[in-house]
Amino acid sequence: MEGNRRAATDLQLTFIGVRHVGKTSLLRSYKSGRFDSSQLSDDQQRITITEDTVQDIQVDGISYLFRLRDTFLNSFDEYFTSERLFPLQCLNTTALVACYAVDDRASFMKLREFILLASHFLPPDTPRIIVATKIDLRDLTETNSCVSTAEGRAMSRQMNANAFVECSALSGQNLRQAFEEAAKAAVKHRSQIKEKKRCTIS
Ligand SMILES: Nc1nc2c(ncn2[C@@H]2O[C@H](COP(=O)(O)OP(=O)(O)OP(=O)(O)O)[C@@H](O)[C@H]2O)c(=O)[nH]1
Ligand SMILES: [Mg+2]
Question: What InterPro entries does the database record attribute to this sequence (predicted)?
Answer without folding.
Answer: P-loop_NTPase, Small_GTPase, Small_GTPase_Rho
